Amino acid sequence: MTKIPEVWIFAEQQLGQIEPTVFQLLTRAREIAPRFKVVAVLFETPTQHLAATLAEYGPDKILVVQDPRLAQVADAEQATLLAHLVQRDQPNSFLFGATALGRSLAPRLQAKLQTGLTADCLALHFEDELLVQTKPSYGDNIMCEIVCPDKRPQMATVRPNTFAAQKVEPDRSRPELEVVTDLPWPEVAHFQIIAEKKVATPQTGLSQAKRIIALGRGAADAASKTVARSWAQKIDAQIGVTRPLTDGGGFSVKDQIGQSGQTVAPELLFCLGISGAVQFLSGITNAKVIVAVNPDPQAAIFSVADYGFVGEANGFLTALQQVDQRKQAALK
Ligand SMILES: Cc1cc2nc3c(=O)[nH]c(=O)nc-3n(C[C@H](O)[C@H](O)[C@H](O)COP(=O)(O)OP(=O)(O)OC[C@H]3O[C@@H](n4cnc5c(N)ncnc54)[C@H](O)[C@@H]3O)c2cc1C
User: Fold this and answer.
1) I want to staple 163 with a disulfide (CB 3.0 to 4.6 A). Which of 8, 28, 136, 205 is the partner?
2) Which residue among 294, 316, 320 is best mutated to probe the pocket of ligand 1, counting the most ligand atoms within 8 A of its Cβ?
3) Residues framing ligand 1 (Cβ under 6 A)
4) What residue segments make up the domains of the chain, in order of their start?
């Protein structure tokens, strides 16, 4: 019988919490590979029980490697264990989040398996059984489609928030569960873990924010920045910027939204003084509600906005604050 091709997702966890990118990858894998078996590969200690959380995102199978030694495991050892699993089951593809751990494990595994790996993908789709991986190339100036035609598995890391996560209906989430307890354990013990702390990845912060006020060149003056910061505090939002503001100093790439910055997925995104260049737009495709403010009615940002205000950023922010002040006064 022909084996159903499998697309594997590494179910990265930190201190018993599944990294959100895993849910995004499971969702995307279901969308792009409906004929494949979507498999979540989870490493956990016997006291952790994380499979149920993964099941909510509809994998066909959860492959759990359970071992108490996983509490003290190094990246090199994890890569060796993954290599054993891959050699045993021969998946078609293997996806990782482009997180600190994913960026460490995926190349180690790729080197062991002598296959292809595309790092930091922004889009994925299948053409038959060939994984087409899209990423910015040549100094981020073009988008390149990369394939690995003759080696398996096809491997990719994907930036957090590139895709949206979607749970499946509870009655549709009955994955097959395989618990593996007998993998040959690599003989490496370089260190002992004394304490563990959740890593703040470069993506933590802006990419996890529920509300963002994004400032562009048209809102880069000191007055707009001051009002935006105070409004952000008021509505519990983070400030993001376009590249000209990063280049201008005062902001870093951690604050920048877009192709060469962060991918964001807030519930509410204000775009103030932003024209809507493709490099910026590629970082906001998963924002739920976009409010754009720009005096140019032809600005490209309006074509992706849910609400638009044709006017100046500073005037818009000041008006918002005045409305709020009036409301506070009325409530007194
Ligand atoms: C390889 C590469 C990678 C890149 N990566 C990124 C990236 O990750 N992120 C990114 O953002 N850019 C990136 N860029 C740059 C991108 O091409 C644009 O230049 C940039 O997004 C434009 O930023 P902006 O909208 O703030 O400025 P502009 O394009 O100059 O737009 C300013 C807007 O402000 C409006 N405006 C003027 N006055 C006001 C006012 N008083 N109030 C409100 N609006 C006003 C104007 O009408 C205009 O639409 C990249 C470019 C390259 C080549």
Assistant:
1) 28
2) 294
3) 139-141, 216-219, 242-244, 256-261, 272-275, 277, 279-280, 293-296, 299, 312-313
4) 6-180, 206-331
CA distances from 309 to 36, 295, 297, 306 (A): 45, 8, 9, 10
Fold held by 6-180: Rossmann fold (3.40.50)
Compute, in angstroms, the gap from residue 158 CA to the centroid of ligand 1.
25
Instruction: Find the mean pLDDT for residues 197-209.
Output: 70
Q: Which of 138, 159, 279 to mutate to test the pocket of ligand 1 (most atoms within 8 A of CB)?
A: 279
100 Cα–ligand 1 center, Å: 29
Q: What is the mean pLDDT of residues 218-241?
A: 93
User: What pLDDT score was predicted for residue 6?
Assistant: 98
The predicted-structure confidence for 70-90, as pLDDT tens digits, reads as follows 988 889 999 999 999 999 999
Q: Are 12 and 73 in contact (CB under 8 A)?
A: no
- CATH architecture, domain defined by 206-331: 3-Layer(aba) Sandwich (3.40)
Residue 322 has pLDDT above 90, yes or no: no
Same CATH topology for 6-180 and 206-331: the answer is yes
Long-range pairs, 298-302, Cβ under 8 A, ≥24: 299/274, 299/275, 300/275, 300/276, 301/271, 301/274, 301/275, 301/276, 302/276
